[in-house]
Amino acid sequence: MTRKPMMAGNWKMNKTVGEAVVLAQDISNQFKGTWEACDVVVCPPFVDLKPAYTVFEFDRVPISVGAQNVYWEESGAYTGEISVPMLKEIGCEWCIIGHSERRGYFGETNEDVNKKAKALLAGGLKPIICCGESLEVRDAGDTLEFVCAQVRAAFAGIDAAQAVKCVVAYEPIWAIGTGRTATPEQAQEVCLAIRETLAELFGAESADAMRVLYGGSMNPGNVDMLIAQPDIDGGLIGGAALKAPSFVQLIEACI
Ligand code: 13P
């Protein structure tokens, strides 16, 4: 099975609306390849979602937008939260959930990630489910067990028909924003274990169809080695997604 590669930019808490519009325009103008060969997604802050979506719609480039978080209730007294229908109405197709920064700084648990995944799927959005170990877990030799447990928890109660719409992003915490990338072998080992876990849960055919991304200091210099691995289907990019030339180079590497 050949899986379509995917490059997703996680802008994190960067870019005002004005800056987001400029970056979105630069990405759509600078890419000269065939968009169909790779699914491209940008995940800006909430306030930038509609402006970025509008740029891509106006330029007629098939770049999808995704949020970086969501709450699982549809509406109500949840001050500060954003729901699935709100995201859907402004053209959002994807949503990152379970990023290590949300788990680490904001106390997001495996159970929260599972509730968010179910709410997104019920509302017609596609989750990008993040998982990844700390350096302590890696040094203790527990990486595969830890990451696969995160994956099982995120997908609890979700059936194969829904699961195939999801993307899993393996992001070792020690590689995020540190310039210290996992070696292709390290990344492949974990992405393979993730796919085997997906096969246990949903069957080999579904697991084979699902995309597993790598994230953590991926950049134009190391992307080729990483995406050459059989179980790495693209990237979830932080720093290198904040400048159009490097993000465009990453997309081109997937084609
Ligand atoms: P960096 O690419 O900046 O390491 O960030 C990766 C990441 O956390 C994407 O979600």
How would you describe what is shown here?
- The protein contains twelve helices and eight strands.
- It has helices at residues 17-30, 46-59, 84-89, 100-106, 110-122, 135-139, 143-154, 160-163, 184-202, 204-209, 223-227, 244-253; strands at 6-10, 39-43, 63-67, 94-97, 126-131, 167-170, 211-214, 234-237.
- The protein has an eight-stranded parallel beta sheet.
- Helix content is 45%, strand content 15%.
- It is globular.
- With 255 residues, it is an alpha/beta fold.
- The protein has a single domain (6-253), classed as Aldolase class I (TIM Barrel).
- 1,3-dihydroxyacetonephosphate binds next to strand 8.
SSE order, as H and E? Answer: EHEHEHEHHEHHHEHHEHEH
Low-pLDDT segments, ≥5 res: none
CATH level-1 class:
Alpha Beta
CATH superfamily: Aldolase class I
In round numbers, the mean pLDDT is 97
How would you describe this structure in keywords?
255 residues; alpha/beta; TIM Barrel; eight-stranded parallel sheet; 12 helices; binds 1,3-dihydroxyacetonephosphate
